[in-house]
Amino acid sequence: MLEAIDLVKHFPVRGSDALVHALNGVSLSLAAGETLGIVGESGCGKSTLAKVLVRLEDPTSGRVVLDGVDLTELRGRRLRAHRRHIQMVFQDPYSSLDPRQSVGAALDEVLTVHGIGSSDADRTRRVAELLDLVGLSPAFAQRLPHEMSGGQRQRVGIARALAPEPRVLLLDEPVSALDVSVRAEVMNLLVHLRSELQLAYLFISHDVAMVRQISDRVAVMYFGRVVEQGGWKSVLSVHGGDPLHPYTAGLRGAVPVPDPTVAQPLAATVVGEVPNPVAPPSGCPFHPRCPLAEDVCRTALPPLEEIRDEHLAACHVAARSLTGSR
Ligand code: SF4
């Protein structure tokens, strides 16, 4: 249904010829009703990817295809008509809402922009339905953002994303800014809405445990690239999972496992810093931090390729050890 094809996004650095390499060729796909988790450290390009997918940012190159239509070629009304099918939920519900606008007015505005509802009364009824969908009473339509808790604000953020009746939600760290006690409630709401409305999710997070909880498949991003992709059980599960890329193994190993039958720590964690995005390392961008790096890793970029059934990785060593082909 949704496809990203070789997306590149470079931002110019003001006052110089340098470029920030935010996305360096990301390809992935999302099927109807599926949840694809995107995981990686801060600065790996996850949020830029989401913004390019909804065309809040134009890609430097590459394509975003929804149901066979290339969104990167659309402008104006035609773009808006297609974009209603992909909506975004932001990390910080407070800054994504207008502090002077009531919840009802914010939702009504989205409905109006997308031509949903034939009258004021129709839209008022729809606003109440949206609030009910996210577990809020109709009285919340009168509230201003500062009159709600963080969890309530994020529920409003989700209602606003649902207002245009999308088929895909891009959830960019949707629970990271919430208190721990509220996170589970919002995660449960997202799971409920997914089956109730048959939505597809791109769930973006630095939190391996959250991605593991909600995803069907997982894409691990590092330095603006997907370095591993597969079913969540193969990539992130602590019971039988077997990540192929040393970066994924480090991310997975850094998460405590709430299970006394699983030995801890699981694996080495990732050490060192993400490289400077203005000066990408040669070869595999992970080589300055990789415990398995070899000479070839410093000169040749490993392609993302299928190493096991529907389990892809971009790593010279993983490819050689599993296929014996190099
Ligand atoms: Fe490490 Fe080399 Fe694999 Fe990159 S290609 S992850 S440096 S072993």
UniProtKB/TrEMBL annotation:
PROSITE patterns: ABC_TRANSPORTER_1, ABC_TRANSPORTER_2. It comes from the Bacteria. The keyword Electron transport does not apply. It holds the Pfam family ABC_tran. Residues 2-248 form the ABC transporter domain. GO terms for molecular function: ATP binding. The keyword rRNA-binding does not apply. Keywords: ATP-binding, Nucleotide-binding, Transport. Belongs to the ABC transporter superfamily. This is ABC transporter ATP-binding protein.
